[in-house]
Amino acid sequence: MSDPVSADFGVRMQLIVDVLAQTLDRAVLLDDEELTPVTHSRQLGELDDVRVHSVLQRETRAEVKAALFEFGIGAADSAVWTPAFPQYNLMPRFCVPVRSASERFGYLWIIAPEGSLPEHGQQLAERAGADLLAILDRRNAALRSEESAQQGLLMRLIAAQDPGQAQTVVAELHARAMADPHDVVQVFRFEPDPDDAGDPVDRSMALRLRLAATDRTRRWYTLAGSPTTILAVSRSDAGSAATADTVALAVRASYGTHPAIGSSGAPLPITQAALGFRQARLALTLAEVGAGSAQVADWSALGSWRTLALLGQAYGPDRLGELVHPGIVGLIEQGREDLLRTLETYLANGGDVRRTSEDMYLHRSTLYYRLEKLTEAVGSDLGDGETRFDLMLSLRLARLAGLYRPGSTAV
Predict the structure, then answer these.
(1) Are residues 226 and 192 in contact, defined by beta-carbon separation less than 8 angstroms?
(2) pLDDT tens digit string along 298-319?
(3) Any idea where the PucR C-terminal helix-turn-helix domain is (predicted)?
(4) Which of 20, 119, 183, 356 could cross-link to 128 by cystine, CB 3.0-4.6 Å?
(5) Taking phi first (over 0 means left), then psi (-120 to 50 degrees means alpha), and beta for anything else, what does residue 225 get?
(6) Is the peptide bond between 406 and the residue preceding it cis, with omega within 30 degrees of 0?
């Protein structure tokens, strides 16, 4: 889907680049701050390998990029000449940084094989850089305004409490070409690293762009925050099996970490996005306490954990802690993670000693010794069905209450 705002400003930038190239009779190129080509003029004058590669491949080779930044273009506040780099077949260039006091948009390049431009030509290039800066400033302001409006609509969508409210918001999304009334949605939530110094909104937007580039069958939206929310909107007949993997890979690539992610599970009608948001929120809570084995905890696949998550939402951690079996509390206070993990594995295997021994790489005699200690600690027979249910429930409640995490037995 084309963006009319970006398209309009793109036409203006192209015009400035073309006019400058025709006036100087030189090839002109506009790169972004990472030296990825944004636009370029037609091929005027003598060219070099770097120019040809950047136009054809839509990139600047890593070694050329490193050489230019080492020369100092990244710190330049005004126009600067870059020398020839014969080893890369790079001709001299007149470089005009396109930047404001707070933001660097990119670089305007004029190829000058002889290493010089008339004074008037340099002034024209600097004027073109200033004009591009003004356009990019206005474009960013327009995009921020549009982004703010979209974010407001999405916030209303995931907060809608009744079908009428949701249908009204979906109609507004449809008018903005953000969604169709019969679309479905999946919601994901994750907690960004609190030590990340990057701007959360910029990171969130970068994540959205990465998702859109990876999977073009969906419309992707992100809501920055702690936690951050992702909405994947698609037609009702679109497959959804790989969506969780797509999200996990994109989060890892954008943030450099692989946090626990909560998913609303199977796609829901877009008018039920608020339900999906609640499910993803609860799934994230469960993912953070170790429910399930995958990075993305799918609400629709979490079984009995879902009931406990709803109970935890209603009661709160303190009251949940009061429901934990006193024998489990005692083991937590004593720091007996070995016994707690043994009990969890034993119960998960339905009391099967052989499977538990294999899963934990324990000798049978060691396992029997631990089971004796557990029987003493809980004061009940581990073979009793009611006791097993109570202990499994207590272990999960202890996790939700923040009393116990695998790897930590701090109360």
Answers:
(1) yes
(2) 999 998 899 988 888 888 777 8
(3) 339-397
(4) 20
(5) left
(6) no
Predicted TM-score (pTM) of the model is 0.66
Q: Which pLDDT score, from 0 to 100, does residue 167 have? A: 94
Separation between Cα atoms, residue 330 and residue 411, nearest integer Å: 10
- Report residues of the chain scoring pLDDT below 50: 1-2, 4-5, 408-411
Kind and range of the H or E run holding 70? helix 62-71
Looking at this protein, which amino acid is placed at residue 235? R
Q: CA-CA distance, 394 to 320, in Å (whole number)?
A: 9
Q: Which residues are registered as beta bridge partners of 399?
A: none
Which residues have a Cβ under 8 Å from the Cβ of 120 and sit 6 or more positions away? none
DSSP-derived secondary structure for 203-219: HHHHHHHHHHHH-TTSE
DSSP state of 228: E
Helix spans in 289-325 (H): 305-315, 317-321
pLDDT at 147 (0 to 100)? 78
- Buried b / exposed e over 265-285, threshold 16 CB at 10 Å, is bebbbbbbbbbbbbbbbbbbb
CA distance 232 to 396: 30
Closest CA to 276 of 266, 285, 288: 266
Backbone phi, psi, residue 28, to 5°? -125, 140
